[in-house]
What does this fold into?
Amino acid sequence: MFEGSAAHERARALGELRVYTERGADDEAELARRIGKARVAVNIRAHARFTEAVFRDCPDLQMISIWGVGTDNIDLAAAARHGVTVCNTPGSNAYAVAEHALALMLAVARKIPQIDRGMRDGAWPRDMLTQLYGKTLGVFGTGSIGARTAELGRGLGMEVLAWSARRDSPEMKDDILRCADFVTLHVRLTPETRGFIAQREFGLMKPGAILVNTGRGALVERDALLAALAAGTIAGAGLDVFHDEPLAPGDALLACPNTVLSPHNAGQTPEVRRDGLMLTIQNVENFLEGKPTNVVRA
It folds into this structure.
């Protein structure tokens, strides 16, 4: 992914560079060993957990540059205590992830996976389907991805109701959940948004509503989701993110017929890879020049 890219070549010009491609940095001690005495760490995969212990064991670390938007794998308060600047790449994957959110909405609403399987098995399924035109789309999170998803929804003739964690009240959140035919999650995962959709929220949603999550798995309480899908509290869900990744064989979600699942790859396009990696390195360049960009605040 990174090796051989234009961003890789650009990073090499900044000084000594070590690239780790094998998984293993989800262990604190291993991540600290890999960072060593480096001033800058580039984080491409969210399974690497930058904890208080990692910052303590890496006193030379000054900056983490993330490819992506989510920072839930980084203890931002600990980073601030240890004087480590954290930067991300907002907007670099917005178009791709928004398109994927829309694709999941359509796949669940039009029952495309089930119909495809039925036809391949020799059937001619003629189920009643759900159209998006004229429906209400509830967009939670109004950053670059949420804003683009809202734009796509309007383009299909949907009424869009948007909610911002910084601007809007919990009461407005509830009102949108009651009205929305489709709910799509794009809020940042924080202690406040963990379990953003739980049993209470599922109880507010329409029985025919469809939930889409391309943010983080922990935004949705897992047991409440499974119960809502099993009981028909909601019509279905399109999920690109999960509590545990990858999903283990036999995971209960795999047996839910009213779900469409993808392996956290909403942003996996050549354009996102090219632009996101380049912006990740540009953030490093700007930091080293004393002009940090895209700084994430705790």
